[in-house]
Write a structure and sequence with these properties.
mainly alpha, two-stranded antiparallel ribbon, 52% helix
Length: 106
């Protein structure tokens, strides 16, 4: 899934971002996948194969988180930014985790 995300985002970002960095994108994708996996809170009894299959359900959330983080490079901790008549306001990152439900443990 990591390579698929990197490939898809590379196609999208290399068309619009003249300073595109594949290394930074790969870092953001890896981190997004770790965060989704952490949010799911897999029990120890889940095998790697079962986790991989389950993570496929959260492709779009992981993609959105990676894209969000990539686009915020250089704007760390800013909610809004204005420069040369252009104003940027960033959405709440936590909203990107909507639909990622932690697994219940018994």
């Amino acid at each position: 899934m990591e390579q698929e995300l990197i490939k898809d985002l590379t196609i999208e970002l290399s068309l619009t971002d003249e300073q595109f960095s594949s290394e930074l994108l790969a870092q953001k994708v890896r981190n997004a996948l770790r965060e989704v996996k952490s949010a799911r809170n897999y029990p120890d009894t889940y095998t790697d194969e079962k986790i991989t299959d389950d993570m496929k359900k959260y492709y779009s959330q992981a993609r959105a988180i990676a894209l969000y983080d990539y686009n915020k490079i250089g704007y760390d901790y800013e909610d809004s930014h204005s420069e040369n008549g252009i104003s940027n306001t960033f959405s709440d990152r936590d909203k990107l985790f909507a639909g990622i439900i932690p697994l219940a443990r018994i």
